[in-house]
Give the backbone structure.
Amino acid sequence: TKFNTEGYDIIEDPNTVNRVLVVGKLTNTGTNDDDGFIMTIDGNNGNPTQFDVFGTVGKTDYLTSINPSHDPDGFILGGVTEKNNPYDMWALKLDNALGLVWSTARDYNKGFIGTNEEFSHNVIERYNTSGQYEYYQIGSVYPGVMGGGDMSVYKLDFNGFGVGNGQFTYGDGGNDDASTIDFANPSSDGF
């Protein structure tokens, strides 16, 4: 069996010296089954030190983003899963040893009738004014209620569950997409 990999995001580990992490898509060319992968690389010599795969057998899954997370220290990953058909936004929280803390899929539910697909491009962690960590996941939904594809933002709680009134879409009649999210001012509530 032959495998192909595509890396989509990379970060330097803030918790472990000289460790780099890469996330992406692993394709089994014999079955065309795609799974998400995370690979650690020794920052001194460039050699891989760990390779873990996440996904559902016989479905398309891949990871598109990785960012640091806390409590426990580790990582928040964004991706796409076909587990619930068709494609949904996927968020995974891993501890620093890359053990799975939780995994959730987001399905667009703004009253659209028909089949739609969601694609995650980034997830970030935020420490809110209530003293809790929460997550914001961004990407796109096709078709969207505003026509074409719409930008979408999901707000997730500490355990990865969607927050009430925490689903937002933006766009116009064309195709609109969001690729990254960041704090406008880390000391405020703004993005």
The mean pLDDT is 87. The CA atoms of residues 42 and 64 lie 21 Å apart.
